[in-house]
Amino acid sequence: MNMGFGLSVEPQLWALLFVMVRVGAAFLAAPVFSAVSIPLPARIALTGAIGVLTMHAAPVVAPDEIFSITTMLMVAAEAMVGLALGFVLQIAFAAPLVASEVMGVSMGLGFAQAVDPQSNTSTPALGQFLSVLLTLLFLSVDGHLVLVDLVVRSYALMPPGEAWLAPQRLLNIALFGGYAFLAGLLLALPVGFLLLCVNVIVGMLSRSAPALNLFAVGLPASLAMGVIAILIALPAMGDYLLVIIHEALEASQLLVLG
Hints:
Layout: H1 3-29, H2 40-57, H3 69-92, H4 95-107, E1 113-115, E2 122-124, H5 125-140, H6 143-157, H7 167-175, H8 178-208, H9 214-257
Antiparallel strand pairs: 1-2
GO cellular component, one term: bacterial-type flagellum basal body
Pfam family, one: Bac_export_1
Subcellular location: Cell membrane; Bacterial flagellum basal body
């Protein structure tokens, strides 16, 4: 038995585990990959497969001392870069939830809750519909492949061991959180404007005819108008969802990788 072969495998194994930290952290925070419906063994296998490809695309050397403070700091830096790449995308994916809150309250669907299959939490039913639509569009434009490409390219821009994010980049990532509210409001703008007009009309009717039952007329009218408005505005909302995906991928590259 060739003992030299066994000695040459161990550094490669540590290098693979070192690479898997950044890749696994990105998948832990990124949408689609972080869905609870994906089994943990499948995530680990996917992370390891991408880690092997990354080792061939970029020179990765394992730390000299495995159990040391320097190595722990390097691992923390790798995890921070991966989490930042996925977290920026996760911020953009929160825009449909903001839009659903704006539209759902005006339509009277604020009480309609459903379990989100990705996060396993209770979310508005309308927000779940928009989130599923955004996820399908993200997969249709190969956004998941672009994310993998960003993770692999990050090793050329931020070599392992030198990947610590500057405070200014962390601040920019935090400020990007406002984009979720901006995109959500713009996504709900067509439907929200029509619902506002309906509420104004119902208010005028309630003032002109005080005996009119506002709840018996206003709530069904708002719900019907909201459903019709969503059906009419759905193509435009789909186009803006593509814009959100494009902005999220661009922000991941700009805010994290520079």
